[in-house]
Specification:
The chain is α/β, with parallel strands linked by helices. The protein has 10 helices and 8 strands. Helix 5 links the parallel strand 4 and strand 5.
């Protein structure tokens, strides 16, 4: 069965807007776990504009309490690795983000970054942290990833999500994702996936066999707002109706 890891970044972004601990990422993560989520993902970026490095430790303690996995994503800078190695999450997903990038928008060029990635994977594996590299579908560098000792890849799924409503594009894109996934599995790599997956497109993506984990943040939060607005508004309207 594919595991769902809820990415908490968007909740951290809302929290940071007011400078208080509201909403609390810890409380939100705990609700997700209590509702059945299999794991929590956090992606602290160097400017900590949403997830903060201090959130990693808090969420690690929470995930340990409930026996679920914490996945920490990010660019393997010295600072990022120091935080991850100290917190020892279950999994660390290495992502080729520029410091001021809005969101991840491509996978690794593994050979061009081999030294950086080999060093990071080595340090993570020394602490028994499962390592995953964020890659584009169609990558020809799976052998290199396996040889450097990584455990999994995470397929960058935005190209799939973008083609979802275009039948002509969708089939070839999905085929390419399936080929990359099968090739990775044949080399002994586990396959995760994430980015722009949502309630509309997830089911079809999971027709690809053997996807171990999806991490989903943006749409999950947007869908929660859109689908939850009815109940919340109803309650506010009841209160104002009882007022003066
Ligand atoms: N995987 C990676 C590497 C990401 O950077 C993100 C976004 O932080 C996700 C998955 C989740 O993407 P989304 O927020 O679109 O669900």
């Amino acid at each position: 069965m594919t595991k769902l890891s809820v990415n908490i970044n968007k909740v951290a972004l809302i929290r940071n807007a007011r400078g208080r601990d509201f909403p609390s990422v810890e409380r939100f993560a705990e609700s997700c776990i209590e509702l059945g989520a299999h794991g929590i993902t956090l992606h602290p970026r160097p400017d900590q504009r949403h997830a903060r490095y201090s959130d990693v430790r808090v969420l690690k303690t929470l995930c340990d309490k409930y026996g679920v996995e914490l996945n920490v994503e990010g660019y393997p800078s010295d600072e990022f690795l120091r935080v991850v190695l100290e917190a020892e999450p279950t999994q660390c997903t290495l992502v080729p983000d520029d410091p001021d990038q809005i969101t991840s928008d491509h996978g690794w060029e593994v050979s061009r970054n081999a030294k950086l990635l080999e060093g990071a994977v080595y340090k993570l594996k020394e602490r028994n942290i499962r390592t995953s590299l964020f890659v584009d579908h169609g990558t020809s560098e799976l052998g290199l990833i396996r040889d450097m000792g990584a455990d999994r890849i995470e397929l960058y799924t935005e190209p799939y999500a973008d083609s979802f409503f275009d039948q002509l594009k969708l089939e070839p894109v999905l085929r390419s994702f399936r080929c990359t996934s099968t090739a990775a599995q044949n080399l002994g790599l586990g396959v995760n996936a994430g980015h722009d997956l949502n309630l509309d497109n997830l089911d079809r993506f999971l027709s690809i066999p053997g996807i171990m984990e999806v991490s989903i943040g943006h749409s999950l939060v947007v869908e929660s707002i859109e689908r939850g607005i009815g109940k919340v508004l109803e309650n506010y309207l009841k209160i104002v109706a009882n007022g003066n």
